[in-house]
Structures are given as structure tokens and as C-alpha cells.
Amino acid sequence: MNTEIVARHPEIDDTLRRYVLRRVRSAINQLSTQIKNITVKLDRRTAALPEQRNCMIEIRIDGQAPVIVNSDGPHWLSAIDLAVESAARALRRQLKHTLHQVTPLQLLKGQHAS
Fold first, then answer.
1. Burial (Cβ within 10 Å: 0-12, 13-18, ≥19) of residue 93
2. 73, CA 20 to 30 Å: which among 56, 95, 110, 114?
3. InterPro entries this protein is in (predicted)?
4. DSSP secondary-structure letter at 46?
5. Is the separation of the CB atoms in 87 and 28 below 8 Å?
6. Which are the contacts of 63, defined by CB distance < 8 A and separation ≥ 6?
């Protein structure tokens, strides 16, 4: 699984990038081995809301629609934490929905991953 962090602000340093990776991995990586890619975009809001920070997380899963979550906060850590928690909940819901569509025979044969 590939985790990519996209940020174009000088205030987003290596420490914040490591924080993002640690939070994403602890909350999301354990949920599915089917995750192909996670993209985290950190950005400031438009001129209308210059003090708001935005964190967008997109999770791509094999054979399913991507999970996309946006969260805003007054600080980077609050925006990141809200986005990670929302993404983990959305991913759990999607995976739970997928498992309810799988028959027990498919589970035994290992066909649920496709």
C-alpha cells in the first residue's frame, strides 16, 4: 500500500508529515489488506477562510469506489485528526457493507477480495 502526502506550504514540515503517516497507519491500515493507495492532501482554505486548514483523505480499495473525506480545522492537527477518524469510520462502513454481500462459500474460497 502506498501512502502519499501532498502539501505545498512551508509550515508543513517533516514532523507534521510523520504525524500524518502515524495517524493514518494506526487508524486505517489495520482495516483492510485491500487498500491500494491513500492520498492525504493538506491545504489552507480560500481567501474567504484564510485561518482554516483542510485535510482531504482519499482511500483507494481494490474493486470498490474510493473513500473520500474532507475535514477543516483551525490547526493542522485538528483537521488531520478529524479527517483520519472520519475516513476510518467510512472505510469500516464500506467494508462492512461489502462483507454483507459476500456469501459464506466465497469467504471460504477467498474470493471476497476481488
1. exposed
2. 95
3. RHF-like, RHF/RaiA
4. -
5. yes
6. 34, 114
Domains of the chain: 2-113 (3.30.160.100)
Altogether, the residues listed in the chain come to a count of 114
Strand-pair category, 35-44 with 67-73: unpaired
pLDDT, one tens digit per residue, over 87-102 is 999 998 888 876 555 5
Sheet arrangement for strand 67-73:
2-7, 35-44, 53-61, 67-73
% residues pLDDT > 90 (the chain): 43
Q: Cα separations (Å) of 22 from 30, 47, 74, 77, 87?
A: 12, 30, 21, 12, 14
Decide: 40 and 5 in contact? Cβ < 8 Å. Answer: yes
CA 28, CA 92: separation in Å to the nearest integer?
9
Q: Residue 7 and residue 19: Cα distance in Å, rounded?
A: 14
Q: What is the CA 85 to chain-centroid distance, rounded?
A: 9
